[in-house]
Amino acid sequence: RNMSSAGPEGRKKMRECEGLIDSLVYYIQGAIADHEPNDKATENCVCILHNLSYQLEIELPESYAQSIYMQRRNISNNDKTPGCFGTRSRKVKEKQQDTPLPEEKSNPKGVESLWHSTLIRIYLSLIAKSTRNYTQEASLGALQNLTAGTGPMPFAVARTVVQKANGLPSIRAMLHVSHPAVKKTAVSLLRNLSRNTSLQNDIAREVLPDLVSVLPECVPGCDIACETTASICYTLFNLTQSSSHNARLLLSAHGLPKVIAISMNDSNMFSKASRAASVLLYSLWSHTDLHSAYKK
């Protein structure tokens, strides 16, 4: 567990170690089957897998990267916009989000297991069944790592979490735990998931009221709670930016007074949450059909 957090080279060596990842997954599967999701060894295994999934998309061996990104390059080549940072059409971006991963192997080995739907379901099962905070946080954190980035892997994992494995109820429950690090990681995961336009309505329907309910009445006084608040605001921004219906959901959940109160905080120390709330308010105002409701 300690070695898995030793940096890129350490992660690379451990991912390449034959049988290591398979053994960790095998142990966790056994613990879940035996209804023992709270033992210390399971926590250690999940924490190792969490660390090994960090920056996975960037650090993948070339052989995997080529097969995963082949389809994405084909889409990019059809885009005639010049320059690395040229404005891409929304259509192209949506195509990239919907680019599937190569077909999953029924018996993944080694590093392939890290993004396989089997392990995604294991994480969701631990989130639901374990009462150990570190195990919950590591499971959420592994999914957060796998859904970070803009390539086809993060979006494919996001679709598995939301649509194939029905993971939102388990993640939603973590918004209401007392442990601040677990709550923060759950929100960060939802923020990643909410970037996928094809999943936004599902996420809004399942968790938007809960996100609003855990928003504080004003900017909180500690760093971790402040970061969580900012992350909630950016998640709500993603969910409502292109959807008047979702903005109305936020309104009916009585979210607007909270967002306004957070945005009006003058302290530089907590500007991250205030800035995020202001960005959300600016976006909400773009739904002109809701202006009269906002004014009320």
TrEMBL record:
GO terms for cellular component: adherens junction; cytoplasm; intercalated disc; nucleus; plasma membrane. It is found in: Cell junction. This is PKP2 protein. It comes from the Eukaryota. Residues 94-107 have a biased composition (Basic and acidic residues). One of its GO terms (biological process) is intermediate filament bundle assembly. It comes from Donacobius atricapilla. Residues 79-109 are annotated as: Disordered. The keyword Transit peptide does not apply. Keywords: Cell adhesion, Cell junction, Repeat. Belongs to the beta-catenin family. Gene3D superfamilies: Leucine-rich Repeat Variant (1.25.10.10). Coiled coil: none annotated.
